[in-house]
Design a protein that fits this description.
heterodimer, A: mainly alpha, 5 helices, 74% helix, B: 281 residues, alpha+beta, nine-stranded antiparallel beta sheet
Amino acid sequence: MFILDTKIKSNKKKILKTSLIYLVLSLSAIIINYVYGLFGHGVHSSYMTWMFLYPLLGGAVLYLLIFLLVSEITGFVAYRMFYNIYNSGIATLTIGSLLKGIFDIAGTSSVYIAVFYAIGELFVAIGLVMLLVLAVNLKKSQV
Amino acid sequence: MGAVAFVLLDTFAIQKSLVVVEPESAMVANETAASQSDPVLTDNSYEDDNIKISIETVRDDDSTIYVADIQVSDPSYIKTAFANNIYGRNIKATTSEIAEAQNAIFAINGDYYGFRDGGYVLRNGVTYRNTARSAGDDDALVIDKDGNLSVVSENQTSMESLSNNWQVLSFGPGLVENGQIVVDSSSEVSQSMTSNPRTAIGQISDLHYIVIVSDGRTSESTGLSLLQLSQEFQERGCTTAYNLDGGGSSTMYFNGEVVNNPTDGKSTGEREVSDIVYFGY
């Protein structure tokens, strides 16, 4: 199965770097919420307030766990595919949450927000399944 | 980024014209106008055989509040109008522009229905939208064909059962029901937090109404909370009162002039809105 093909070398440092980038993105999300709140005349949206959780839990924490538990999966060719799909999912969910927050604060709505969530959740689900498959096969190969 | 830009433009800018409202024919309007007596008009009052309006400006709660006391002889003089006479999304004009187009004597901004996809819209007896808003944030104002105001929950009341009414506006929340204040200091909808410019309408008795617009978001006038707004209506004897779109939308128009000082807190001047509630022929 091609997704389980392995490269010669894994790259653990890249996982840690990704985790740190997600941490910075989480802080950015918190700052965006704070600055937006200054101009919101006291109106807040939980979607904007908590949007930082997507990059924090879905990004920084997950990649830290990967680094600590299954860092060798970067040796799989398919890791790059997981990386791209999963990150796209987290980005889509975060942007969807930001837009939902902007619309809530403005007192409006959009039918397209549901599309952001649907695509984001689909990508994250696919990414997690791939991660699970890679992790299981990594463990098998280590036995 | 393209998708984000599209969604933002679709929500805030792209106009979608859904229904063009045919204005009353000039002949009918002229006949109606001919039947009214010459009005007695001052800077802050209007009176003819059918419509009596007086506006007072008061200071309360560190805010400038404009209170209009309005009596009409027939509920048909309480009207609503869409910007450019078009029902649709992001179709906008200032309250004064819409009012002038309708020859309104007195007008306030409506519920800004065109900024949302949900919320009942029934105007001058015609149903335009029957999509209820999400539960918990779904108070609608009903003006029946006798001119009586009531507040209903859109999730508990079908649009079909309301279709025989004169007007239905969707913003809220209800402020006063059966003479009792129905909001408290923590009861704030997402569009209407703490002290802000406000627009609201209430009823004292048959065909006797109070309309309140408050300035806000300035050093001279902080604006009203929903509780303070409710108290203003209750103190004036209203049995029912309902909050309309506020913030930068809040505008009171009388006899060709804007009465209040509309501002969104950043710039002054009227904001374009989707619709108005007005009194006139």
